[in-house]
């Protein structure tokens, strides 16, 4: 079994609507029932980000995201899937349920 | 060419995909499969002229590649734990070459095709990977065919192989629910290779690339053989055969493209036409509703059935285009349909049907308009349309053809 990070992309931090939340919850239940669930969560907007650089000893904090872009990640799933075909099918359903585009990336060595 | 050279070329064509596919399944790694298959063929080139061709060349190549793969993994096993695991897999007794049931080997090649044409890979990567892994073309050959730098093409293939491995693109025939869409993807890759060969888009290249069309036909034959029940796989093969059959008449001695209506039909390849017609008839006999490639093949069957362009059954062509429009109502299909309309109802009616098609950047649109305007005696408008078509056309032979037609239009 491999693990995949499914990131939810958006161009605004508008929270999911009531209807979208209901659909996401239903999808999460399905992931759990079918043994694909690892973890999921929504994220605060890039405005709430802090970049931390601790490479030189004392950590240096920078307000804001590490890169400015029109689109950013507003939430994610970590799913377990046999291969990319299974991961892509689940990601397609996830995208439909949360009504946003998603990006799928393999978690290395998982 | 000596006899052994001929055998080597033939065996490379016939066995490459089989060897790569078998090794890929056994070791779960396309890199190892590709490299050891290439090494096995190199060994054959060295040994066969002296030792003679083995009785079962495919089995010999698979066994040789398998041994090389095991050697390689053993060498690398000293370095990493992961390779030790791979070695354990490789050491499990495995029937080699001729002992394996034919069905399993066929499935291997099909898996390989689906892996190379996976929709998670960019289309140029699918094309390059298919030509390398399934077609057995070398990186320099593919780079030349598509006029890209060898290093660029090499990186494209390396990146695709790395993604297959890291992202977990599976090495198997897709599930039943995914199969139709995935077959469509495979056929689109093959059609792309064929079209690039049949009307090379780059002015610096020869007008028609026989190496690419031949390779596309060979791959389509393989896929049809692996999916004999798939109507569109049969349709695409038939379509390619019926177009490929006309290749000898497609470019004139002076390097000008020759339109279908002006071609020397005696130069057409009757054997390919017969094969294409047989496939079209076999699909019609199933009574199943045809897809896009099958209808296109049927249209080409009507054209290749006419001993002279004046014998063309245009009402049949139009009926087929009507069917095609229902499957694919794109402007390009409607443009091609208008050509048949012109033959049946005259250029005036056809011209009216071109109005409003959003194809201003597509040179065949302007070439078709120019021809219809010429036939209506509207010379000035015709020449303007030819100018637009000539400016947009990329292919040298096609430009030459359009320039001549424009000159003819000047008198009318």
Question: Would you identify the regions of chain A where 5 or more consecutive residues have pLDDT less than 50?
Answer: none
Describe the main β-sheet of chain A briefly. Answer: 4 strands, antiparallel
- Cα distance spanning the termini of chain A: 8 Å
Instruction: Detail the poorly predicted runs of chain B.
Output: 92-102
**Name of the top-level CATH class of chain A:** Alpha Beta
Beta content of chain A: 35-45%
Shape of chain A: globular
Please tell me the CATH architecture of chain A by its name.
Answer: 2-Layer Sandwich
What pattern of helices and strands is seen along the backbone of chain B? HHHHHHHHHHHHHHHHHHH
In total, the number of strands of chain A is 6
- Domains counted in the coordinates of chain B: how many? 4
Would you tell me the overall average pLDDT of chain B?
89
Question: How large a portion of the residues of chain B is in β-strands, by DSSP E?
Answer: under 5%
Largest interface: A-B, 13 and 10 residues
* Oligomeric grouping of the chains: heterodimer
Instruction: Report the count of strand segments of chain B.
Output: 0
